[in-house]
Amino acid sequence: FLVANDMETFRSFPKIKSTEAVLWIPPGDTKVLGELWSMINAKWIHSFFAGVDGLAGFVKEQKLVDRADVPLTNGRGAFSSSLAEYAMAAILHFNKQVPRIQENSRKGQWDKFVMNTVKGKTIGLIGFGDIAKATAKLAKAFGMKVLAVRRSPSKGTGGGLADEVGGFEDRLSVFARADFVVSVLPGTKETINFCGEKEFYAMKRTAVFINIGRGVTVDEVALCKALDAKKIVGAALDVFHKEPLPESSPLWKRENVLITAHNADFTEDYAEQGWKVWQSNYNAMRSGKPMVTPVQKNLGY
User: Fold this and answer.
1) Would you say the pTM of this structure is higher than 0.90?
2) Which of 51, 114, 181, 291 could join 124 via S-S bond, C-beta 3.0 to 4.6 A?
3) What is the per-residue pLDDT for 149?
């Protein structure tokens, strides 16, 4: 392994020109990656993250979309279970009225309110990749109905994990019917601000919006307007258009918004899980088998 994030260091490695593969670990400098690429003859590039939107410019500049001989793989599956847990934690936070419970505890107030349940409620998954399927498994265990929206609905229900699957054009129906909407979309040209004013205003006033996909897929201004107008109960957000989220963002300091610093999947075994996916692809490449987590470079996921 040759590890660096600047060309001076890379050039100092005697074996740099014999490099056959590149592992990109965000926030690695893609400009350096581009320079490095021009001096090596790599046969494979792997993104430690599941999302590869950070590599979009590099892929375009190097014309890798047309290079079937140079596969791009990602960390798909490495962090799905932790993100699914986060989604369910957010759902239970709002459903069980955790803030109310905490406030009662602080005040020493005996408040015997009616406790809600998630059983029988509907979760709408916007995007239906590995993370969404992991979330659907947990939701099913809680007795929830699962609706899903995916770019290609013909790919199916994930072995029955979703009760219904529709295309992107059907998303307003899912936003309107779901009690909890969970966005797990990748960041592509097609999905920028995919969740916007029409979508939020279609939601039930008792519904909650959760984003564990990519920040660019949510129109944050529209979301704030929906929250201000009490069009939805609340939101849980782990990703944002700009990270770190600026202190001036109107998303901060809201009692009905949960904000985490893009760390819903930053678990104790984060590195180990990511390396397992890389290793599986490495073994596949060495044995001449198809890559385990190939990215469709023309689609960006």
Assistant:
1) yes
2) 181
3) 98
